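Task: complex structure prediction.
Instruction: return structure tokens for all chains below.
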Amino acid sequence: MKLFTHNMLTSKMIKNVKVGYPLKLNAAEVKVTPSEFRSTYVSRMLPKIDWGVLYEATQSIGHAEAIPSSISDDYEKNEDFLRKAHHALFEIEVINGEMICPETGRKFPIKDGIPNMLVNEDEVN
Amino acid sequence: METPIIPSDTGLNELVYEPAEDSFLLLDALEQDLVKSFQGNLSEDVVNVLEVGCGSGIISTAIAKSEKLLNGRLPCVFALDVNPNACLLTEKTGEANQVATSSLHAVLFDGRHCSRNPFRVQFDIIICNPPYVPILPGENTEDENSGLLQQSWDGGPDGNRFICPFLSNVHHLLNDDGLLYMLLSTWNDPEMLVKDVALPNGLNGVEVIKRTAGRERLSVWKFQKIGLSSV
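Output:
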């Protein structure tokens, strides 16, 4: 699971959960897989990203130096910054671990790089 | 749109729904309709795409490479399935077809449970080839290991056990001007679903393509939020 996915997922589908975001991230196994950098894609994705949550995620899984704590103002023209953002969003992967709902403590396992967001019927209705 | 190749050396293929007539009809529908729907669309934003029930990943992979159909806008696809093997195979299918790993993301999730959105964003395009085959209890039951595979096509006694809750709730995931493409069979009574399930939940449905495949008559329907449709 890439940190981009963590940035987008919530536990809001569980009943009585108000925000369910961000999910606390615990990583048991992390892998870095280089992938094709497309500056346009990263640049157009950044408005959708919660940068603070991405920064916290990099801190919590041992990649504290990956990105600066705040987003660059001129990121569209700043290739160095976009490459760092690409690395943090799409190259650092949690292979095994878990995400935890901030309100209920409900755990969502991550196994073989796939986040398991399955919930039981009685948790949603 | 190129038809993606499913890698055969993954050890997962027998555990996941293999693309069939329904998958290919959905691909054809998307190829025809997305071009029309995105023509003249001048936004440069990334297109948020969600596939519910990705199976082998054939459709998610095709869409992840479909910026030509989207007037040059770049797609970002989330692929959901209840079968972990389908999630794994989808990522492998993406790789085998040179999809950028930043464009395709698999998540284990049941599409019936979307009465509240598990994502922080809503989607511009949602695609679903649901389990739609009517199966009576006890009929056609396979052993326990094939249970997840059966979930990919078993639609319960009336064929609509997945479709009804999904169609009732999917508006929570759809952008105001978003498009939902869904494959249905005559078994599901599409006209009834449009009138009695989609409409009361604020969605208009129109048929975009149909085809007879053996004893099935399949069709793909496009749903949009009422009053906000730009197409």
